[in-house]
Structure formats: structure tokens, C-alpha cells
Amino acid sequence: MARPSKAPERRAELVAAARHTVVERGVLNLKLRDVADHAGMSPGSLLYYYPSLSDLLEDVQQEAVERFCVAREAAVAAEADPRARMRAMIGSGLPNGKNDELCVLLYELGTIARREPAYSARHIALYERQVRGYVGILEAGAATGIFDLTDDPVTIARNLVTLEDGYGLHLTQAVPPLDRSVAEAMVLSYARVSTRCSLEAPA
């Protein structure tokens, strides 16, 4: 009987090693040996599972995008009222600080998207998936009369995601110019104006 392949398990371990290495060292000066050292193997052994560092980082990006989106979708799904769903969506989209591993990872990998089409495509998919999440909340709120939208749902949704990205980038700097509570309040402020709703839970 043939022994089961350990390749999927080993590749998952390498994705985890690369994820931690990117967060620790940054992606711009990252070398294959850095990841291999973190994984406890030689660069040659790593190349047996991934033909290049770029191939490995593509899997890192894909895994990070999925984890981020699933967490946001779960936070929203736990709420029924559109106001609570909006607050949950905003709260789940901002980094907890400069040491938020997942958000730092996404921002680091986003720098590659400026030059590499494959990375750019996943970055766009992340953006559009978040926009769709907001659109669903906005449309549900408008349909029930809770929201009175000042613009079409897609425009509002895109502005919300872009605000999150901008504030999130500041929150992950070595010296953040503001804290998370302020950033969240700013995004909520725009959401209140654009929905003409206080977003507070009904009494």
C-alpha cells in the first residue's frame, strides 16, 4: 500500500513559516533562505515544494485573504439587525494595532501587487469581496427602511473599504498617528452620514 503524501502538510507548514517571516522581516528584502531557516530546512528542500519564493508567497497571500474575509463574514453573520451588521463589519476591518499579524501581512503583500499581476488580482478580489459585504448590509438596511442612503450602495461600500484601508495602513506604522478607537469612530461617522442612521441598536 502506498504511503500517503506529506506534501500538503509540508506546504502548509511552509506557508505558516513564510507568513511569520514576512511579518517579522517585511517582504521587500525577504529571501528564500529566511523562510527556509524559519522552517528549519535548507533552501533546496524548500524548492522541492515551491519552485520559487514568489510561488510560496502567492499561497501565503491567498491564505491570508481567505482568513481575513471569512473572519469578517462570520462577524457580520452573527448579527441580524443592519445597524449591528454595519458596526460588526467596520469593527472587523481595522487592525488591532501595529502588531496585528493578519493585517500587517496583507499590507506587506500588497506592496508586491504594484508590480505582479497575480498578486494584484488577489488584492482586487479582496477589495471586491469586502465591497460586496458592505453592499449586502446597505441594501438590506435600505430595503427595511432602516437606512436612507445618500448614494448608491456600491459607491458607499467602496468608500467604506477605502477608508478602512487608509486608516488601517496608519494603524500598522511603527508609530501610529492615531489609535484604533479614533479610526473606528471616523469610519462609523461616514457610515452614519451615508446611511442617515445613527447605527445604534434599537431601544
In short:
The chain is 70% helix and 0% strand. With 203 residues, the chain is mainly alpha-helical.
Give an account of the 3D structure.
70% of the residues lie in helices and 0% in strands. By secondary structure, the protein is mainly α. Helix 4 runs antiparallel to helix 5 (82-93) and helix 4 packs across helix 6 (101-110).
Helix-strand makeup class: mainly alpha
The number of distinct helices, counting runs of at least 4 residues, comes to 9
| Biggest sheet details | none
Provide the low-confidence segments as ranges. none
Number of strands: 0
| Average pLDDT over all residues | 91
Oligomeric composition of the shown chains? single chain
Question: What's the N-to-C terminus distance?
Answer: 65 Å
Strand content: under 5%
Overall spatial form? elongated
Helicity level: over 70%
H/E element sequence:
HHHHHHHHH
From the alpha-carbon coordinates, what is the Rg to the nearest angstrom? 20 Å
Domain HTH tetR-type: 8-68
Pfam family, one: TetR_N
InterPro entries: BetI_C (IPR039538), Homeodomain-like_sf (IPR009057), HTH-type_TetR-like_transc_reg (IPR050109), HTH_TetR (IPR001647), Tet_transcr_reg_TetR-rel_C_sf (IPR036271)
Keywords: DNA-binding, Repressor, Transcription, Transcription regulation
